[in-house]
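Lecture notes, structural biology module. Today: joint structure prediction for complexes of two components.
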Amino acid sequence: MPSSGNSYKVRLLLALLDQPVQTIDVEYGSDTLTQAKAETRLPFGKAPVLELDDGTLLPESNAILVWLGQGTRFVPKDALQQAQMLSWMFWEQNQHEGVIAVRAALLNYPHRKAQATPERLAELLTSGNGLLQIMDDHLRMRDWLVGDDASLADLCLYAYTHTAEARGGFDLAPFPALRDWLDRVAALPGYVAL
Amino acid sequence: MPSSGNSYKVRLLLALLDQPVQTIDVEYGSDTLTQAKAETRLPFGKAPVLELDDGTLLPESNAILVWLGQGTRFVPKDALQQAQMLSWMFWEQNQHEGVIAVRAALLNYPHRKAQATPERLAELLTSGNGLLQIMDDHLRMRDWLVGDDASLADLCLYAYTHTAEARGGFDLAPFPALRDWLDRVAALPGYVAL
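The predicted structure, tokenised, for the full assembly:
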């Protein structure tokens, strides 16, 4: 789904790993989305889904990242750092995405407009600033979310954070450590934009 | 947090592994919760958090499950099955918990009552039934969510599913495969109730 941060995460990791993939776009309202649903190729009804060569379908963006990232520089060798990476990735799906990405969706997708009430947008702005603050606080003393190098935690949280201003209407000025971190991700060799 | 399914998941895994742990209860409104927040011992502001012997704090229930479960019977040996286990765990945090657990929270926690409007409860009932249907469909042909044995995917999804009727107001009668699976989890040696 070209407009989706969850899909972009996977494209970004594949680009950083210089690994080719065949993609089928399933944007909202497209025939390909209707067809993918009819063929039950979206096990949880959502994109992205990774289809392996043997036909196995793997849903959930962050599970796809772990599958594709295993044994690469983006998964720490240390078991505790792996668990810390997963903490950020679960937090991203449980807290960050449900606020930062949802505010962007309400503001940008025509089919979500009805839910974009001033009260809901204000509530999401306040919660979202709290979440961005958690990231900024954590990044004040370190370059990457976990350990000394970029990991899947950074890639997964970059997806919806780097569009928080343009799409979500958040102001990142109060979060300088977060902004520097966004620049570091964008400088990774092989980086592709959304 | 004794009332929380996310905390219960961790207690359940530790009981199944017969692994002792010292717990500090941080129920809503308790002094221990206020104190834990003041001492910044809840990195993302939520329970549960696992504190290791060296003081490292690991938040996010499903990341704690992965950390404690590594090398045990609850993590499949096969890398693809591990990724499939994570798919269910990310789905649990991104979809299932935000609907099934949230409906239970609105109905049971006094501080959430104001959000428990009839419209919101009806909307969560419809979405929740869709999510329970995905699980029931998947479990019709198999005993466990991934592979041939119980995994962290089953434990994490059991937590809020087994209280969906009593706390969330869902009717599980239309989901026979799901109900059989709940019985299988409850029959695991060492099982403890919430």
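Point to remember: The first strand of chain B starts at residue 49 and ends at 51.
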